[in-house]
């Protein structure tokens, strides 16, 4: 495995195509960047803080906005703020 990718626990590697920035998530969802930041801080969007930046995995964002009756849908942690 090269230094530009790592195993995500499945067959998928971490690549530039499946990692999104705050701006890309905002454009994808049609919401302001500030709202993306707020949702990430509250745990309503799956994200990871790296330094001063937030990063998002494309498949987890897709699952987060999937219908809630979808058994594969991501759900925020209970009691998160």
UniProtKB/TrEMBL annotation:
Extent of the signal sequence: none
Helix-turn-helix domain sequence ranges: 19-63
Pfam hit, one: HTH_17
Cited InterPro entries: DNA-bd_dom_put_sf, HTH_17, SinI_DNA-bd
Name assigned to this protein: Helix-turn-helix domain-containing protein
Source organism (scientific name): Svornostia abyssi
């Amino acid at each position: 495995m090269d230094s530009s990718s790592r195993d995500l626990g499945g067959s998928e590697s971490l690549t530039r195509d499946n990692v999104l920035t705050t701006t890309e998530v905002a454009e994808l969802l049609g919401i302001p960047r500030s709202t993306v930041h707020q949702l990430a801080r509250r745990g309503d969007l799956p994200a990871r803080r790296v330094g001063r930046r937030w990063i998002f995995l494309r498949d987890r964002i897709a699952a987060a906005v999937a219908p809630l009756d979808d058994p594969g849908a991501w759900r925020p942690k209970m009691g998160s703020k």
